[in-house]
Amino acid sequence: MMDRIILEDIEQIKSNVKGDFFADKKILVTGGAGFIGSWLCDFLIGFGATVTVVDNLSTGRLKNINHLFSNPLFSFVQSDVCMFECDERFDVILHMAAHASPDEYMAHPIETLMTSALGTKRMLELARKSDATLLFASTSETYGDAEVIPTPESYWGKVNPVGPRSCYDEGKRFAEALLVAYHKQYGLDVKIPRIFNSYGPRLREDGLYGRALSRFIMQALSELPITVYGDGKQTRSFCYITDTASGLLLLTANQGARGEMVNVGNTREVTILELARKIKEVTKCKSAIEFCPLPKDDPKRRCPDVSKLVGLVGWMPSVSFDVGVERTVSWFKL
Ligand SMILES: NC(=O)c1ccc[n+]([C@@H]2O[C@H](COP(=O)([O-])OP(=O)(O)OC[C@H]3O[C@@H](n4cnc5c(N)ncnc54)[C@H](O)[C@@H]3O)[C@@H](O)[C@H]2O)c1
């Protein structure tokens, strides 16, 4: 639904990103019914692009895009990207489809790997046929339990190749290698943002372990215990959705980013305990903080070095943690 907060936030994206590159383009968004994908669709339609979403609705929600169905510039295909067949040509493909949260990818490890491998191969072939720009949503999880903080793109990562998170981490790492191979072998225009924890309106709030920020908000608003895994000293860097979407769109349009991996995230590192306390403060809830055993291979710290992003597009994520959390809580209260 396009409520006041989302409408204001889309204006914010418009002030960060000039839409000219996207106007009149034919754009395919995989995973467009999901959190980040649906924000991209709102921006693109607003700028006069023709948008096709392909999504199997495994984790996405139709309510994120229902308001777009009446727009002649918008169409929706319910399909798995691994099976998606299409004779159309596109100018840009934004490949966002994935099981993105630990609860979801751990429950569907084979589908998760195949979406990254077969789904990405299919999108690369489609991009090749169309000579399209292809942006692939990669992740900070390609760094695993990083030993270099803030983490630059030159760091190769510390990933358990067969651990509980490997279906996601290694799937994304394989996809990155495949994208770079298509870039080298065929000169395809690929862009590979590594997204660090994004949040905001439309982020799913269910699940037991992943997506701590929206889960904490719902626990707080329901006066349930806020479940922190481990001692809460592990860190994440939370990037508000307007910044994440702006970074992805700026990279899509940027010539210097061809074939490049680029971190997209906020540089403010926050402990999970600090996050829980912040959400208690903003919601004014009386929930207790409950500590649960830390799952295996949970990364200890996560914070991006964004100097490459700044060098390429002359911009960096800047919505403060306080403002982003307040806006997200307000949206969940609507
Ligand atoms: N949200 C974050 O903080 C974050 C961080 C790093 C990377 N990413 C990446 O960004 C992308 C979007 O993440 P999100 O947070 O919006 O997740 P999301 O779960 O809200 O959206 C993913 C969408 O992909 C769809 N999907 C999944 N598998 C599919 C398949 N095989 N075929 C077709 N559709 C499929 C889902 O139904 C959903 O609509 C993902 O690729 C994710 O890995 C997100």
Main attributes of the structure:
globular, two-stranded parallel ribbon, eight-stranded parallel β-sheet, Rossmann fold, binds nicotinamide-adenine-dinucleotide, 334 residues, alpha/beta
How would you describe what is shown here?
The chain is an alpha/beta fold. It has one domain: Rossmann fold. The protein is built from 10 helices and 14 strands. Strands 1, 2, 3, 4, 5, 6, 7 and 12 form an 8-stranded parallel beta sheet that branches. Helix 4 packs parallel to helix 5 (166-186) and helix 8 (272-283) crosses helix 10 (321-333). 49% of the residues are buried. Bound molecules: nicotinamide-adenine-dinucleotide. Nicotinamide-adenine-dinucleotide is lined by residues 30-31, 33-37, 55-60, 80-82, 96-100, 115, 119, 137, 139, 195, 197-198. Residues 30-31, 33-37, 55-60, 80-82, 96-100, 115, 119, 137, 139, 195, 197-198 line the site of nicotinamide-adenine-dinucleotide.
